[in-house]
Every structure is written in C-alpha cells, then in structure tokens.
Amino acid sequence: MNEDNASKIFTFLNYASDYIRNLKTENGVLMINSPRKTGFLGFLGCIEALKHLYTNLIKPKILIYLPFYKLSQDHLELFFCNIRAQGGTNNNPTVRQFISAYKKILTHVQLIDRNKGSCVALENLSILNCSSAVQRINKSVDVHAELEEEGYDLEIQEISAYFSDFGIQAIGHIAGFIVRILFKKIKCDICVGALVTQHFEHFHKFIIAKDGGGLLYPSTDVFKICQTVEIYSKQIDIAKFNKDITTAKVMRPFIGTNLFNSISYHQLGEFPESNHITDLIKAIVDKYIDIRIHHLLKLNIKLSKRQFLNKYVLFQGQ
Asked: Domain Transposable element P transposase-like RNase H C-terminal: where (predicted)?
C-alpha cells in the first residue's frame, strides 16, 4: 500500500468491514456476537490495524509503502507446514525431526505441503532458503533500470594462449549450451539479453557448422568466463573435488573486472546481496563446472568389484 492506491484499498476495506459487521447467523444473531465470532473479529482487527499503520507511517512520509502481505503470519504457517511434512504431517515433531527439517529448508531442499495448512501462498516467496544464483536473479527482476555505459578492460589474450583453435571452438560450443540452459531458467530479460550476441565471433565456427536453426550464439563475456573456468577445471582432482571450494576459486579472477559491460547499469538498483551481474557469472561458472565434472566422471568409470565378481559368485560350484 502507498499513497497512490490507498483510497482504492480503503474503499474496498470499508465495504468489507460493513459486510462482516452485518453478517448474521440463521437465528438472526450478528456473527460478531455469536460463538463463532473469532475469525470475523480477526478480519475487522486487521482492517483497523492496516488503517492505523497507514495513518502513522505512510501518510507522514516515514515510509513510502508497506507490503502488508509480508506482515501477515501466512509465511510462518507455511514454514510450519514444511516442518510437518518432514514427519509425515506430524504436528508434534521431536527435536531431531525438527532439526532435520530445518536444515533441509535452510539448504533449499524445500519441503512443500500440498494442502498448504490453513492458508494459501499468494506470492512466490521462499522461506529460509539459501537460493542459487539463478533463483536470486529471478527473485529480484527489475525491468525499469536506466542504461549507463562504462569502459571494458578485461583482456583475454593471455588466457587464449592456453588453448588451441580447436579448444577455443569447443569452449564456445559449450558456452552456447550453457546459454541455452540459462535461457530456460532465468526470467530477467536484461540478463538473458547479455548472454547472447547478434554478431559472429571467432569462437562461433563450431556453432555455425552445427547450427540447424536452434543453437544460440554466446556473447564474448560468456565465452571469457568459460575459458577461465576451463583452466581451473584442468586442475580438478576428482577424488578431492568440492564444488563450493572450486566455485569460490574460479570466482576470484572476476573480482574487479568489468564483465557484462552492456548491462552495468542493471546492478545499480539491486541490493548488494542480489547483484544480477555477480549472480549471472556464478550461474555460468556453476553450469560449466557441472558439465566438466560430468565428463571427467565418465572418463574414470571403472568396473566395481561387485560387478566384476557377480558371475563368479552366482555360478560358484557349478
């Protein structure tokens, strides 16, 4: 609610308040005076509280607006629904069950109750979730930013020296695949536009040869990020691999660089913890690491002892 829509909201609330006050039971008793008055009095109390908050906070310009849905207890009810779902709709979980469910919610393995308890979610709000880079972008989409241009000073000549022409084309093709994945997941139009280019670059040769009309051409920024990740991926030890540590190491070279210069204005209206450019870089890094690890694991597949001795055990003594 803000000053622009306050009159419209108050008109509806006054109508709702009069309607609730005049509701009667089958016996002609006012509902607010009947034994079932609790819920109706609660609605009236919320209406009066909303008016009081507007009068004391928004009208004197202390606050510009108030998101009243986020002030409700619906989120607490949905959180309790998630906790109950872990224990098979158990209303009285043990300490161990509560700790387990809380950790799962906190690490984004979110538990969802189909019945939603005693309320229904009106907005797509996460509860205690450490969300991924893609989800943070989708959560804070802002399509009304104004364009500002800055210089671009990231050079890749030294990085390119690590790769042959075939390696550069392979990285470009993987970058196009990553762009295609992120196109389906990211809802921010500005971020999506920064992933592709309308011009053919030197690393697009393989994509052009394979393109039948459905491939995407990654931008130079995406290609540079993938090149950097490829250098680090050559140092990965599968036996000691930790994705979080690897991602943190790969992200360090990008500190202070002007990647995605064309959308540098886009981060000005965002909170520091939800910077779209940083999240976009991290999303690309995560996808590239997933692809490379999947490839490395396929190369290191060995026949387990159980598979090797299976027939020997089954047919022993024959």
From this structure: 69-103
